Input
Amino acid sequence: MRQTEKIANEMRKDIIEMIHAANSGHPGGSLSCVDIIASLFFEVMDIDIDSINSTDRDRFILSKGHASETLYAALAEMGIIPHEELLTFRKFGTRLQGHPNMNHCPGIDMSSGSLGQGLSVGVGMAIANKMNNKPYRVYVLVGDGECQEGMIWEAAMSASHYGLDNLVLIVDHNGLQSDGFVRDVMNNSPLGKKFDSFGWNVFGCDGHDISIITQALKMAKTVKDKPTVLIAETVKGKGVSFMENNPNWHGRGISDEDYIRAMKELGGDDCE
Amino acid sequence: MSKMATRESFGIALKELAEKNQDVVALNADISKSTKTDVLRNYDPSRHFNMGIAEANMIGVAAGLAVSGKIPFASSFAMFAAGRAFEQIRNSVAYPHLNVKICVSHAGLSDGPDGATHQCNEDIALMRVIPGMTVIQPCDDIETRKAMEAIAEYQGPVYLRLGRAPVEDVNDENYEFHLGKAVIVHEGKTDITVFATGVMVQNSLKAVNILNEKGIDPTIINIHTIKPLDEKTVIEYAAKSRLIVSAEEHSIIGGLGSAISEVLSQKCPSRQLFIGVKDVFGESGTVEQLYDKYGISAEKIAANIEKAALELL
Output
């Protein structure tokens, strides 16, 4: 497990480097879901460099597509894309579009970016796996602000209606969205009770503890006949003190000065 | 002559495709009896997914099924698929160019008595503007069935536009459907060409009978594939016509007429008469009453072509 935590820290540095180089991006929401994506890609999912182009494996949909930095960082850490390619993020001609494009880059299981749509796609994939008697699981990551989209609840209704126990939704519950705190913009808590009333199995955990996240996702495999949602309690901007819990770091670039400060906090190049 | 609605033909064709290919599945949003995916449900309920009254989710689920190798046929009314779920179609289906077939019924004014909320004269425009989207409107039973075979073979997103009201046959069993290829249904003797889609093919053919009595004999071309448009045929016939006419059960803004005009204004500037619904909403009424009021009945098509022909003299 220590290894995955090290990878997560490398991913955080990748994210800071990418946004600094692009001079735009989504630092807060990318940093908040690092430990979730690291747990999925390096602990839970049956995905690696050999299986990446196969359809016979677990699937991941980054419904909160604006955190594409985190997905690209995981793909680079897995060796699926060259590490230096990360610096092309958001630039003209790049495979690493501002929001993920499945046809441009290997390892992206669904194009995303328009909020609220990924869970529905996950429902479709999970139904297909059931029809084909495939044991693979489908993981969808959404933001808590994203759960304001009505389509999330249409999808939630259909996932439990069809008893999709091969579908897991993870909510990156960082409490912030573009315009401020979720509770101020459009309060949607308690999310767990809402999913429970929609017929889901509900787990909650510390969204920055990789061993706990991994344990919860493994436990979800034992739940039958209903989908599972994991409400992962996270801190927006996690790992960079001046970005943490600050709505101003939702979507913006990183200055040279802030880049140096952030990299120093994350251990700089010493951690390589 | 049989009279069958293209939605009925769609339901039969869907079941036939499902018999041949295990990957064919259908999705509906609580109107499976209206848009006829119930034919597949009755044959194999395990391949029919009712998503309830939630069209946005239905399109997203179809996208996920397509990623996983299924061939999903998602169905609703034109208004609630192209309209309600436009952004899901654009971002979750068309942007990744997924193999989802969006098959809609009750397009145009064909849902007469339900009135304007359920009619849809905007969907060709909405779907046509999406990159990589194929837009097809068959005119009759045989063409619908053959079009279904073609779109099941084709890899990529398709919008298939169907009607609620029964329509007369234009084609017989020997008819061959080629995606993207216009069909000359009547070779006229006057230098006027009508490009028609859907049931406007039938109405235009009836208009020919009326116009023949007045010495006017326009050519009628069936544009079943609105996108990609058969530019070659459109230009070829425009070049030898003094007047071209577009006829569609759709707004004159953004539909077939616009598609033709986009091509011809650049490659063969032509005088064009736009027959279609003007910039207005529909209302309750029988299909016949509505076609007459909104200017797309055979009689109105004939009258407008005659008027335009006289202006040319």
